[in-house]
Batch of 3 targets.
Target 1
Amino acid sequence: MASDHPVEYDVGHVEELFSRGRAVVPVGPDELPVLVVKTRRGLFAVTNRCPHRGASLDDAEVSRSTITCALHEYRFDLRSGRVTGGWGTRPTCDPLVVHRVRLADGRLVVALARSRADSPRA
């Protein structure tokens, strides 16, 4: 019987996260690229792919708990993945997939959401 709890993956000590404020780390057996962002509001982890056109988010602008994709300027809440603005007056793209993330003894631990429905909510 499968567990309802997501599996946690220890992705190690990520120096880039502490020096640059963000890092893309491969997570899980399929090495899903996950963007981990550190802000004054906490740690956030999202799949490193904008759901609008698939652009990488590793160089996206981050402000507080919002990330803005450089391709079409869609804005997403890093806590929930919700679209908060962007291209056109009515954003028409799916939310980001958000993963749980925490530090444990100086090491980064990520729990992958199986789907958008499994993403933590703000």
Target 2
Amino acid sequence: MAAPNCRGAPIPLTFHPWAVRLASLSMKLYSTPRTRSARCRWVLQELGVHFEAIPVRLSQGDTRFLKLNPYGRVPVLVDGDLVLSASVAICL
């Protein structure tokens, strides 16, 4: 399996040590429409990362989400034990 580089030429995934880890884990992206979570979703899709998009309805008092981020802000990316709640951190 190969990933394209910036010029479109395939690079074997063996050159990307993170690629095996990303492919083996199940990531969850908690998001709402028309927020900065769209940026995170776009980056994850462009990188070809498999993730589960979970819509959050803050106006309806989604308490499951508040356990991940007590401030009630989206996006939140959950990767195993790691929880990232800033869109810039997720995109890096």
Target 3
Amino acid sequence: MKKLLKWKIEIILVFLILIGNGIASIFAEKIAIKVERQTVELHVTGVVDRVEDGEIAVIIVEELQLELYVHVTEFEVDIKPNLWVNITLSEGNIKDISVNLSKTMEEKENMKKLLELIKQ
């Protein structure tokens, strides 16, 4: 009798575990679907490395180890090498680009200091 009761309890526990796993899987799938539908934006800073043929700006994004090729008409300013920009990436595409004047000036000052050190 005790063996039969123990066996029934084990079957019930296994059944509950299986049901729990199934519910957890369904819940996880719903969460994954919600995350999949959300648009993730990534904000990064890059520097214009060069302009090819006067039309294509090559922007280096060091934190992603990435080179972006962007037509210069997408900018509202004159694009030149060493210009720092803020970039918003969404779903693998460039959503927005804006000039980061403070970073550009900061890096320009750093280059001046380095050149002065070299001259000494």
